[in-house]
Specification:
Elements lengths: L4 H8 L14 H5 L2 H4 L4 H20 L5 E6 L5 E5 L16 H7 L22 H7 L1 E10 L2 E8 L2 E2 L4 E5 L4 E8 L11 H14 L4 E6 L9 E4 L5 H8 L11 E7 L2 E9 L6 E6 L2 E2 L5 H20 L12 H4 L3 E8 L16 H21 L1 H24 L1
Parallel strand pairs: 1-8, 12-14
Antiparallel strand pairs: 1-2, 2-7, 3-4, 3-7, 4-5, 4-6, 8-9, 10-11, 11-14, 12-13
Helix pairs in contact: 4-6, 4-7, 9-11, 11-12
Length: 401
């Protein structure tokens, strides 16, 4: 029988400790970037901006920041400034370097683990800004604290020199500027409208926070500067989402509540369309795939509408009930929850996993929605009539099939 030399070579190849590779520092991020930012296409590229902006919004939620500025520079870089407290620059006792360098160059390092500096935050794992740094050709950070300006620069995540004091300043805060690495990303060109969509969301979710976006790549265009500032919060968000639809009731229904340190904020409105439009957020992070907070909301909505209809004799047939899909037809809702210890599925945080949040959201939404319907029976009846029509149409389609 002829000897298979290739198979023999593979079999005899030694697999020992020398074959075990240890990726140090930020090497792991550059080796497997999609693990941290989702992908290396346009979505992952824009995620870099969102990671830095989310840190600034965490400062705003903690009550230390009122303004954020995002600028897409003419050279292709992005710059984010916030007037928060500024990243600490004093010596980190364990690491032996400035706290700024620790935050920018070490994974799982940050101020959001002890829940003292930030009670709730979108940043959780201490990898956000260090990942941005790792996936950038170059990055510079300026910090203004106590009237003093500090600066540090990096290349591919590595500091060029220690943090140094460069002068004085009169406005506190942090300024991060970075150039995405073309060796990592398929495209390095930011889209201004894409960035603005996220910034607009954040302004709606954080009433009174001013966010300014500038596009220096196309400075001559009419809308190269946009300012997002909404005092009405989620109500304005729902109105914006429904601006091209005919509302079933004049004002969005809005309510909030807090239980077990979980804060729930909801705004919803029914319109004449047949689609559901549901946006869910946890600590300002958009949860694209929903999670336990969305399950809680859906359960409470269906149960509350059915209970109200039965109690008030709206159903012609006592055995009638509305299915979940019937209660969401023509519904636009923004659900925002603040959770001290959210458990997301993955670093990109598209789905919430905390089991306790489901019950909390369900009880708050059920109670507040029932109160609203009792106080506004006309609106409740109009909504249930629309849901009942959806149920009839669904039943007719099933029978026809």
């Amino acid at each position: 029988m002829p000897r298979n030399e290739t198979t023999e070579a593979v079999t005899q190849e030694k697999y020992d400790a020398a074959k075990i590779t240890v990726l140090k520092g930020l090497e792991a991020v550059r080796k497997r970037p999609a693990m941290y930012i989702g992908d290396v296409g346009a979505r992952g590229l824009h995620h870099l901006v969102y990671e830095v902006v989310d840190n600034a919004v965490d400062e705003a939620m903690a009550g230390h920041c009122t303004e954020i500025e995002v600028t897409l520079k003419a050279d292709g870089s992005a710059e984010i400034f916030d007037n928060g407290r500024g990243i600490p620059v004093d010596l980190h006792k364990t690491e032996g370097v400035s706290a700024l360098q620790v935050v920018m160059t070490i994974l799982h390092a940050g101020g959001k683990f002890d829940k003292q500096s930030y009670k709730v935050s979108g940043g959780l794992h201490g990898v956000g800004v260090s990942v941005v740094n790792a996936l950038s050709q170059w990055c510079t950070v300026e910090v203004c604290r106590d009237g003093k300006l500090y600066q540090q620069s990096y290349r591919n995540g590595e500091p060029d020199a220690p943090v140094k004091r460069t002068g004085k300043c009169d406005q506190r805060g942090t300024r991060v500027r970075f150039m995405p690495d073309p060796e990592v990303f398929k495209t390095t060109q930011f889209n201004f409208d894409t960035v603005c969509t996220r910034l607009r969301e954040l302004a709606f979710l954080n009433s009174g926070l001013k966010i300014t976006a500038r596009d220096e790549c196309h400075p001559d265009e009419e809308k190269s500067v946009k300012v997002f500032l909404y005092k009405g919060g989620l109500v304005e968000f729902v109105k914006y989402l429904d601006e091209n639809r005919v509302a079933l009731h004049p004002q969005p229904i809005t309510f909030s509540g807090e239980r077990e340190n979980v804060y729930v904020d909801v705004a919803l409105q029914y319109n004449d369309s047949y689609n559901e439009n549901i946006f869910t957020y946890v600590n300002n992070i958009y949860t694209l795939e929903g999670g336990t907070h969305l399950s809680g909301f859906k359960g409470a909505l269906t149960r509350t509408l059915n209970n109200y209809a039965l109690k008030n004799g709206i159903f012609k047939n006592e055995k009638s009930t509305l299915a979940g899909e019937d209660t969401r037809e023509g519904l636009t809702v923004v659900l925002s929850v603040k959770v001290p210890e959210p458990q997301f599925e993955g670093q990109t945080k598209t789905r919430l996993g905390n089991s306790e949040v489901k019950g909390i959201v369900e009880s708050i939404v059920g109670e507040r929605l029932a109160e609203h319907f009792d106080e506004h029976p006309g609106i409740a009846r109009r909504i249930i009539e629309k849901c009942t029509a959806a149920a009839r149409a669904r039943d007719a389609a099933r029978k026809a099939k």
